[in-house]
Amino acid sequence: MKRILLSLSFVICHLATSSATAQNDTTVVYHGKQVVISEDSLETHVSILSSDGTQWKKSKESTFVSNQEVERFYVSSPIFSWGTSHRYTPTTPRFYIGFAGFSGSALGLGSTNGMPVKTWRSSEMGVNFLEGGAWLNKRNTWSLSISENTFLSQFKLDNHSILMKDEQEHTCASPTDESGVRNSRLFCMGMNIEILIKWYKYFNDPNNDRLSIGGGLSWDLYNKQINYSSYKKDSYTHAAAAEHKMQNTLDIKLQVSYDGLIFYFKKAVTPLFQSGKGPKCYPFSFGMGVVL
Predict the structure, then answer these.
(1) What is the C-alpha separation between 134 and 139, in angstroms, rounded?
(2) CB 104 within 8 A of CB 281
(3) Beta-sheet strand order (sheet of 33-39)
(4) Are 116 and 161 in contact (CB under 8 A)?
(5) Number of C-alpha atoms within 13 angstroms, CB side, residue 132?
(6) CB-CB neighbours of 7 under 10 Å
(7) How far is CA 93 from the centre of its chain?
(8) Residues 17, 26, 63: CA angle, nearest 5 degrees
(9) How far apart are CA 97 and CA 101, in angstroms?
């Protein structure tokens, strides 16, 4: 009988202590997040919950015992993160399309005399196949991303200019008989690799409702087997030249995105043709894309 009474007394005391502990929990709402402060007979704990009750991942926890701070550290990879709040989400367009053109200098956008192009009738499109990235700080406001995509560009040349080549160099010149020449174009295809640093501004939904501004470098690697120039005359399409000896270009890339919609500008700082082997021209492009 005494054992039964002692057991009941222990259970009642335990329930009373748990109830008192639960009543002593303090919840503070700060910027839409719940900060819960709880304590028991030995320790004081602090945890953070989202508005839907999801508990945030701990990167570092501090507890206080008898006026002494005890720290517990959680180690995670900066690239491969298992916590949903720290997982890198892509901001590179899966598909993009825009306008393209040539400039006469590395830093300017002025037209080039060696390759007259109609920018508003020239285009670029591409598909992104691979992207990886990592956050650069704990607040997830800075990131470093690397991506690879395949692009196709077509440049609409002036109707009185045709890009031709011989064994030594490329020339953009007028044909002997200009009558009836139209739709003079240069087609090229290649692969682009870019490295960007991006800054983020979060609003309501941290995954979708956010603004991103980024910049960095990219490399256009042209497929020398898949590029050619052509023009139309007398209802026939004529191949002016094929397999142009283009060199890979180094570009400066700027990008602004919001809620899956991306606007970009890209400008080459190295020429498309080697010096003395073609017109002095620097490709550039601008347009928009979507994150799928």
Answers:
(1) 12
(2) yes
(3) 26-30, 33-39, 44-49, 60-65, 68-73
(4) yes
(5) 5
(6) 10
(7) 7
(8) 80
(9) 13
Angstrom distance (rounded) from CA 172 to CA 273: 12
CA distance 264 to 255: 4
Instruction: Tally Cβ neighbours within 10 Å of residue 189.
Output: 15
Q: For the chain, what is the total number of helices (H) and then of strands (E)?
A: 1, 16
Q: Find, among 102, 88, 184, the residue nearest to 131 by Cα.
A: 88
Q: Which amino acid is located at 274 in the chain?
A: Q
Q: How many CB atoms lie within 10 A of CB 43?
A: 12
- Residue partners of 81: CB distance under 8 A and separation at least 6: 87, 88, 135
Interacting residues of 129 by C-beta distance below 8 A, sequence separation 6+ = 148, 149, 150
Percent of the chain, pLDDT > 70? Answer: 65
pTM, rounded to two decimals: 0.64
Model confidence pLDDT, tens digit, residues 215-268: 999 999 988 766 767 666 666 566 666 666 788 999 999 999 988 899 999 999
Residue 52 structure tokens? 């839907």
- The set of residues, in sequence order, having a beta carbon less than 8 Å from that of 267 and lying 6+ positions away, is 103, 109, 251, 252, 282, 284
Q: How do beta strands 95-103 and 282-290 pair?
A: antiparallel
The model's pLDDT over 104-117, given as tens digits with 9 standing for 90+, comes to 888 888 777 667 78
Do residues 225 and 200 make contact, with C-beta atoms less than 8 angstroms apart? no
Q: Given the DSSP bridges, would you call strands 261-268 and 60-65 parallel, antiparallel or unpaired?
A: unpaired
Phi/psi-derived region of residue 139, left when phi > 0, alpha when psi is between -120 and 50, beta in every other case:
alpha
DSSP type of residue 117: B
